[in-house]
## 1
Amino acid sequence: MAVAGSIGADQVAALQRLLRAMGLYRGACDGTAGPATDRAVRAALALLPAVPPSVQRWPAAARRRCLIRLLARPSEGPGDGPSHGPSHGLSDGPGDGLSDRTGASL
């Protein structure tokens, strides 16, 4: 049974592939979030200017959900409003465990 707010192996594997493409992860893209994935997530979050340093103190699963939400979020483009960039196979759907208030504070 899945825990509310948990992410599945498919999303972890997609996150691992993205972290590998960013040059932050060298492990297997197997959907298992181990220490190498967690180090890469920490490194990626540290690179994003919109993420406060306090996020680094969150539990590993919460940091993964935060990064997925940030990477899956539509980016604001110049001109007519939001432009939906590539999701990289990541979804920030309602089961991500982050409230709208938390997402807005990032």
## 2
Amino acid sequence: MAALVVLAPVVAVVVYSSFEVSDYECDVCVSFDGRESCRKVTAKTEADALRGAIDNACALVASGVTQTMRCTRSEPTRSTCRSLVEKAADETAAGS
């Protein structure tokens, strides 16, 4: 019974956060030590989506803390962000 009391709020938070709508999508490519990686991430804010895409791309081309820090601090070779809210509003308006 005690496990249920502890587990229920954790499950509730996971389920609630999975329904959170992302407002921005960023597509980023990074080049580091001769390797390139591209990743697309959605998030609530544009800054979070950009940071997430850079972090994810760097995770594939850098190894270790020092290389990862150098990679995430470098400029992406390509970076495109867009608002998903505006796209959804445009699609809704077109469908009416």
## 3
Amino acid sequence: MTSRKNDNSNFFGQRIRHLRKKKKILLRQMATELQVDTALVSKLETGERKAQKQQLPIIAKFLQTEENDLTILWLADKIQEAVAQELLADKAIAFITKERKKENAV
């Protein structure tokens, strides 16, 4: 498993770390809430591991933040990872955005 620390695509992990520290919550407290070990929470924050989608509501509730906000960042990380090395990534994302707007307009 490769680390994503240096590619600036760890939006989700950076946000949950910020919220956790702001609320003075220890890694072990968050780990207990998620029913995982402390090392895993640390890896979620650094981007070395990804949260599972079903963990997002638990994390959001524990950190007293909007689930949709965390979901957006979680999805952004997935998209960034999928297209990080693609030269035409921005055009592909723009195309998808345009198509989704058409679908939603119907």
## 4
Amino acid sequence: MKTNISLVYSKQFFELQLVFAQKIADVSHQSLDQVVLRFTALYRILGLDWNLDPTNPIWQILAAKLQCSARNNVLVLRTGQSVETC
């Protein structure tokens, strides 16, 4: 059964995950997408397995949006928004 994550998690929950990840990325000099993968719940919330595989095609879309968000200092995680619009 597929769950609409917007009904389960608030915008503030996602924002907190990303603020936390950005702080770790800044302190550890790691890329934001790698920190989000390793230190937040977002990979699992997307319904992906426990492999935390950075090459997973679904994860790759989110990672590209995170990189774009970091470059433009905006949050780009809305579903259905293509990476190209970033």
